[in-house]
Amino acid sequence: MDLIGRSEELLLLAIWRLQDDAYGVRILESMNRSTGRDWSIGSIYAPLHRLQRKGLVKTTEGAVDPDRGGRPTVLYNLTPKGKQALLDVKAVHDAVWTGIMKLEPS
Amino acid sequence: MTHRPPRLAERILSRCVAPPVREAAMGDVHQMYSHRAKTDGRLVANAWYWRQALRSLPHLLSDSISWTLLMFANYFRVAYRNLLKSKASSLMNVAGMSIAVATAVFVFFFIEAELTRDQFHVGGENIFQVMTEIDRGNGVQLNGPSPIPLAAAMEAGIPQVERAARISYGSATATSNGNSFEEWLWYADPALMEMLSFPMRLGDPTRLREADSIVLSHAMAEKFFGESNPIGSPVTLRFSDEREATFTVVAIAAPFPSKAGFRFNAIVPYSYRDVDVLRWDVRTQATFIQLTNPDHAGVVAAQMESYKALQNAVDEDLPIASFRFVNLYDLATTASNVNGSLAGGSPAAARIVFGVLALFMLLLSCLNYVNIALATATRRLREIAVRKTMGGTRGQIILQFLAENTLVCALSLGVGVLLAFGWFVPGFNAMFAQQGGGVTPADANTATLWIFLGGLLLVTAISSGAYPAFYISRFSPIAIFRGRTTLGGENPLTYTFLTFQFILAFLTMITGVVMTQNAAYQADRDWGYAAEQKIIVPLREAGMYEQLAGAVERLPGVEQIVGAQHNFWSSWTTTTVTDGPDKMGVVRFDVGPGFVDLYELELIAGESFTDGSNTDVDGAVMVNELFVARSGWTPEGAIGQEVRQDSLVLTVSGVVANVQYDDIYSPMEPMIIAQTPDRQFSYMTIQAAAGAAAATNEAVASVWKELMPGREYKAFFQDGVFDRIYLENRNIRSLFSFVAFLALIISCMGLFGLVSQKVIRRKREISIRKVLGASLGSLAGELNRTFFIIIAIASVIAAPLGYFGMTALLGSIFADPMPVGSLGFFISLSIVLGTAFLTIASQFHRIANTNPAVELRGD
Question: Could you give all domains of chain A from N- to C-terminal order, each with its CATH number?
Answer without folding.
Answer: 6-95 (1.10.10.10)
